[in-house]
Every structure is written in C-alpha cells, then in structure tokens.
Amino acid sequence: MGLVVESRLDNMEVKDVAIKLVDVYKIYRMGDGLEFRALNGISLEIGRGEYVAIMGPSGHGKTTLLNMIGLLDRPTRGKVFIDGVDTSKLDDEELSRFRNEKLGFVFQQYNLINRMTVLENIELPLVIRGIPRSERVRMVIDALEKIGGDRSWLYKRPTQLSGGQQQRVAIARAIVGDPDIILADEPTGNLDTASSRVIMETFQRLNEMGKTIVMVTHAHDIANCANRILLIRDGVIKGEIKPDRSKSIFNIV
Ligand SMILES: Nc1ncnc2c1ncn2[C@@H]1O[C@H](COP(=O)(O)OP(=O)(O)OP(=O)(O)O)[C@@H](O)[C@H]1O
Ligand SMILES: [Mg+2]
C-alpha cells in the first residue's frame, strides 16, 4: 500500500503540490523519561485541489498529523512544506501570518466564540490581517453565501443556531480569508445525518471551487465523500484506499 503513496510522490510536479511532508516525527517526552511517538515518520504529498480524508483508529495520530499540516505545532523531526514553502524556516510570527493566509480550520466542536456575534466570529481572521471594516463585512457576506448561510444569522450569537448551522459558520470563518487549503478535524463528529450531509455538500462545493481539503474522520460514509483516503495507524501512513461514492453519506438513506 505504501507504494501507492510513493508513486504519487514521483509523478507530481512541484507546482501542483499543496502539502508535502518529509519524514515527519512527533515525539512526546513523558515525565518518566519515556517517549511516545505520536507520528513515526510520515511522508506524504497532497496535490492542489485534492480532497483527502484521513482515517484511522482513535489515538493513532490523526489530529497530531493535521496539526502538523496546519502549522499549529512543529514536528520533532522532518519537514512540512506548504505551497512549496519550507515552513521550518519561518519564525513564529512568520508562521502565524503564513497560517492565516494559507490555511482555514474547521473543528469538531466548531470552536466559535459564543460571546461574539456570527459576524464577529467570521471576520476574526480578517481583523487579525488588518483588513478595514467595510471590506470585512463584504467578505463575510460573500463567505456566508458560499456556505449557504443566511444573512439573518449575522447578528445572532452562535448558541442561537443549530449545530449544523454553527458548523457552517465555522466553515465561513475558515474560508473568509480565501485560503487555498481547508483542514477539518472530525467536522461532522457532533452532527446528525442531515446536518452532516449539508456539511459534506459544502465541502464538495468548496473543492469544486479549487480548494484543497484535508479532513480527518472516523466515519466511512464521510471519508467516501473525498477523492482519496489515507489510512493512519500507530503514527504511520499504512496505505491508501479509493473512496466508494456509492457508500458516501450522499447515497445513504
Ligand atoms: N501533548 C501530548 N502529550 C503526550 N501525548 C500526546 C499529546 N498529544 C497527543 N498525544 C498522544 O498522541 C497519540 C495520538 O493522538 P491524536 O490526538 O493525534 O489521536 P487521534 O488519532 O486524533 O485520536 P482521536 O480519533 O481519538 O481524535 C495519542 O496516544 C495521544 O494520547
Ligand atoms: Mg483526533
């Protein structure tokens, strides 16, 4: 199975590569002097515009891997390239700016700020970027339209929306700054089937617009919405399987 991943590495042009990991390790040192290898030498390449699902049992390194790709944490060893940039060369400030411009994040728990309005939540990445207010509002409305949201949500608090609506707001926040890459960790983990389907429709639309998507999931019917499924076990990529559309959430009644 590893061979499938290797052959892709050889065939892809550098300019087509959105994400590249070279021999990435994440080793946690425990208090007792022992070490835990959460990622144990991961190399992979994800092309621009790909839609990839990462599957694997609980505790086997999915979130750790996504955090490496998302530059939320640095590897113990190995390199992460985003858009051809060797991110190990960036200092913490450059890394934050790069992350803000290139990557959008979606989490299982939505991670919205409940004391702020929907508008304030979505515009947050733009505030950090220093974009003026009038432009921000225009961009927020644009993002809200892309995810099929309603303008009436803008001045509500996240808790006044359903779980599925809150996750759509979180996706709007992820895409408002127009990042090329969207990273999602169990985006439907808290949602029922109908809401999960709406989220998967939204991801599909974003992928058709050219966004690269990497999504961690436990669920086969969610993974089968992607174009490629990577399997992780014990912190290692164990192989790759082809998604089966007939078994995706779009086809399950
Ligand atoms: N900060 C940390 N210190 C020590 N060990 C950690 C730390 N973060 C994660 N781990 C360990 O690394 C392993 C991988 O964790 P990770 O969160 O990546 O798993 P996961 O595949 O996302 O699991 P789940 O499906 O339950 O979300 C786990 O055994 C976890 O306990
Ligand atoms: Mg996890």
State the main characteristics.
single chain; 253 residues; alpha/beta; Rossmann fold; six-stranded mixed sheet; four-stranded antiparallel sheet; binds adenosine-5'-triphosphate; binds magnesium ion
Lay out the secondary structure.
Elements: H1 2-11, E1 17-29, E2 35-47, E3 51-55, H2 62-69, E4 77-82, E5 85-86, H3 92-102, E6 103-107, H4 118-129, H5 133-146, H6 163-175, E7 181-185, H7 193-208, E8 212-216, H8 220-223, E9 228-233, E10 236-241
Parallel strand pairs: 3-8, 3-9, 6-7, 7-8
Antiparallel strand pairs: 1-2, 1-4, 4-5, 9-10
Bound molecules: adenosine-5'-triphosphate (ATP) and magnesium ion (MG).
Magnesium ion is lined by residues 62-63, 185.
Description:
The chain is of the alpha/beta class and 253 residues long. The chain has a single domain, classed as Rossmann fold (3-Layer(aba) Sandwich), CATH 3.40.50.300. It contains 8 helices and 10 strands. It has helices spanning 2-11, 62-69, 92-102, 118-129, 133-146, 163-175, 193-208, 220-223; strands at residues 17-29, 35-47, 51-55, 77-82, 85-86, 103-107, 181-185, 212-216, 228-233, 236-241. Strands 6-7-8-3-9-10 form a 6-stranded mixed β-sheet, sandwiched between helices. It has a 4-stranded antiparallel β-sheet with strand order 2-1-4-5. A hairpin with a 2-residue loop joins strand 4 (77-82) and strand 5 (85-86). Helix 4 (118-129) runs parallel beside helix 6. The protein is globular, with a radius of gyration of 18 Å. The model has no long low-confidence stretch (mean pLDDT 93). The structure holds adenosine-5'-triphosphate and magnesium ion. Adenosine-5'-triphosphate is lined by residues 28, 36, 38, 56, 58-64.
